[in-house]
Amino acid sequence: MNRKFVLWVAAVGLMMPCRSLAQGTAGKIGLLNVVRVITENAEGKQAMGDFEQKVKTKRDELDRKNNEIQELQKQLQSQARTLNDDSRAALTKSIDTKTTELQRGQDDAQKEFGQLQNEILGRIGNKVAPFVQAYAKEHNFTIIVDISGQNASGVIYFDPANEITDDIIKRVDAAQAPAAPAASKPK
Length: 187
Hints:
The longest helix has 54 residues, at 85-138. Helix 3 (34-40) crosses helix 4 (42-78) and helix 3 (34-40) packs parallel to helix 6 (165-176). This protein has 187 residues and is mostly helical. The radius of gyration is 26 Å and the shape is elongated. The termini are far apart. It has a two-stranded parallel ribbon. The protein has one domain. It has 6 helices and 2 strands; from the N terminus they run H-H-E-H-H-H-E-H.
């Protein structure tokens, strides 16, 4: 995950009321898989589906370029004895140029899609934060811990009954669902 996302999670945790901890009483801890909340609510599913389609399109384009390079390499190998020096040099230069373009394309795609994924996670994460805060207050949680991916590395054990991920997904989806159409007026 990116730093902005981790900072968002930390900010949510800091905004939680900590009165009971300050008074020395045990606090109630909730467990949340933030990545699941972001990617499994309706908006997240749509955004990640669009993202995956863009990735697939770019991957297909890069695969075509790679196949073109492989064909040129086969051509160079099969015709190595029959090509004159100038033709062989031109073909080698073409392979090198296309290989460089492919590498740049792969690097650019990786950077572009990393930024796009971070933008999606950040945008939807910012929309989810108020739901997490409201849920925590309603259910008297002192702190919510992110158990997704690498963020869960500090969690050794947790009781699945304390996980609130599904509840948060349902709330986000319910808030984003279009209002029921108004009853049609009788004629």
